């Protein structure tokens, strides 16, 4: 895949609000099949597009990229068997292939901004939509009257405050700016979604009354904890534009606090449906129990998918599968040694 094609794929994933990571080789110590500047894009499903090295390094890079997407933090990784001084900024991995080359990569994740749902068609709500988009947030809206949103370039506008309809778009943050137009219905619908935070544009007195109403409507106490009112910091706002400014400041605060909490906990960032599957750490791959259709490479110990294996040798009346050409070549130099390793592993599995 050419650099232009990777850039085109990046643009498409950005437009689709899909997370991904780009891995760039910044050091390549021979013998290795890659080069400094080689790049690959890893999507949220773990598919690698591009080239950063052979089969052994690919598996490690994919795992590291998925971890970077989950945390939202860039990282450097080194794949090598060379003695190295511990560096807090570099994640070390053992090179599983017999080539013993060294590869160092920089992995940069791109994670979509949270999806914000603004409820209401008030001047404050409309201004908040504009400001939130300028902050880089993805914005959609819901209101009883949808016409005022026509010129704002929102991804979606929903008619009314139906909780099921709001839940289907899976917003991570909700701003309720109805300001007297169906406040109770809008707030209840917002709290019945799975949004991480619901911000309410209202005075403290009005917010307290609405909290009582929500409890009467059956909103659980643990869900009430997601409600933040007033919506943002106190900035002595008077005009709709000033109120919207404070509310969007509250959205940005919630966005960054959730982001920091996720990074500290090692949990997925707030990306809605863009959750990335967890994978075992690279160093434990050799101990992962092989599935029915998998074979343990006798050279490096890595499980190989038999159905998709590209490097296969028939030797001693059996088929031997490898993760990369380097392991295959090493096997061909000493077949008896590695056949004995494979036989010993099978005997241990039987006991």
Could you walk me through the main structural features you see in this protein, from its secondary elements to its overall organization?
- The chain has 351 residues and is an alpha/beta fold.
- The protein folds into three domains: 3-110, no CATH class; 115-265, NAD(P)-binding Rossmann-like Domain (Rossmann fold, 3-Layer(aba) Sandwich), CATH 3.40.50; 286-350, no CATH class.
- It is built from ten helices and 16 strands.
- It has helices at residues 3-15, 55-71, 123-134, 163-168, 183-191, 204-216, 221-224, 240-265, 325-333, 335-350, and strands at residues 20-29, 39-43, 48-50, 75-79, 90-93, 102-110, 115-119, 138-143, 157-159, 173-176, 197-200, 227-228, 294-296, 303-305, 311-315, 318-322.
- A six-stranded mixed beta sheet has the order 3-2-1-6-4-5, with helices on both faces. Strands 9-8-7-10-11-12 form a six-stranded parallel beta sheet, sandwiched between helices.
- Strand 10, helix 5 (183-191) and strand 11 form a beta-alpha-beta unit.
- The two termini are 46 Å apart.
- Mean pLDDT is 85; it is low at 267-292.
List the helices and strands and how they pair.
Elements (H helix, E strand, L loop, with lengths): L2 H13 L4 E10 L9 E5 L4 E3 L4 H17 L3 E5 L10 E4 L8 E9 L4 E5 L3 H12 L3 E6 L13 E3 L3 H6 L4 E4 L6 H9 L5 E4 L3 H13 L4 H4 L2 E2 L11 H26 L28 E3 L6 E3 L5 E5 L2 E5 L2 H9 L1 H16 L1
Helix pairs in contact: 3-8
The proportion of residues forming helix, as a percent range, comes to 25-40%
CATH names the topology of the largest domain as Rossmann fold
Instruction: Quickly give the CATH architecture of the largest domain.
Output: 3-Layer(aba) Sandwich
Largest sheet: 6 strands, mixed
Find the structural class using helix and strand composition.
alpha/beta
The CATH class of the largest domain is Alpha Beta
Cα-atom Rg, whole angstroms? 26 Å
Number of strands: 16
Shape: elongated
Distance separating the two termini: 46 Å
Mean pLDDT: 85
Helix count, per DSSP?
A: 10
Number of domains as seen in the coordinates:
3
Query: What fraction of residues sit in β-strands?
Result: 15-25%
């Amino acid at each position: 895949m050419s650099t232009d094609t990777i850039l085109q794929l990046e643009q498409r994933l950005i437009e689709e609000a899909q997370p991904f990571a780009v891995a760039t080789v910044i050091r390549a110590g021979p013998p290795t099949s890659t080069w400094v500047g080689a790049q690959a894009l890893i999507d949220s499903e773990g598919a690698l597009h591009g080239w950063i090295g052979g089969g052994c390094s690919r598996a490690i890079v994919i795992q590291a990229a998925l971890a970077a997407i989950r945390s939202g933090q860039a990282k450097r990784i080194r794949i090598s068997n060379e003695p190295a001084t511990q560096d807090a900024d570099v994640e070390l991995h053992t090179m599983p292939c017999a080539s013993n080359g060294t590869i160092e990569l920089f992995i940069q994740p791109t994670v979509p901004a949270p999806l914000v749902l603004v409820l209401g068609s008030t001047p404050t709500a409309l201004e908040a939509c504009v400001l939130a988009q300028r902050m880089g947030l993805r914005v959609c809206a819901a209101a009883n009257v949808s016409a005022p949103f026509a010129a704002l370039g929102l991804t979606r506008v929903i008619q009314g405050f139906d909780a099921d309809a709001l839940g289907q778009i899976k917003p991570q943050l909700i701003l309720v700016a109805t300001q007297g137009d169906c406040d109770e219905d809008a707030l209840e619908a917002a709290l019945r979604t799975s949004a991480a935070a619901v911000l309410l544009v209202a005075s403290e007195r009005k917010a307290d009354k609405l909290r009582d109403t929500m409890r009467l409507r059956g909103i659980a106490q643990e869900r009430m904890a997601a409600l933040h009112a007033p919506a943002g910091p106190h900035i002595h706002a008077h005009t709709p534009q000033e109120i919207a400014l404070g509310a969007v400041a509250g959205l940005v605060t919630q966005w960054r606090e959730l982001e920091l909490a996720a990074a500290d906990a090692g949990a997925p960032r707030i990306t809605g449906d863009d959750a990335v599957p967890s994978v075992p750490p690279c160093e434990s791959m050799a101990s992962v129990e092989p599935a029915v259709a998998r074979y343990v490479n006798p050279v490096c110990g890595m499980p190989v998918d038999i159905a998709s294996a590209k490097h296969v040798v028939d030797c001693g009346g059996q088929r031997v599968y490898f993760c990369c050409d380097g392991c295959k070549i090493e096997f061909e130099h000493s077949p008896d040694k590695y056949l004995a390793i494979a036989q010993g592993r099978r005997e241990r599995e039987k006991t």
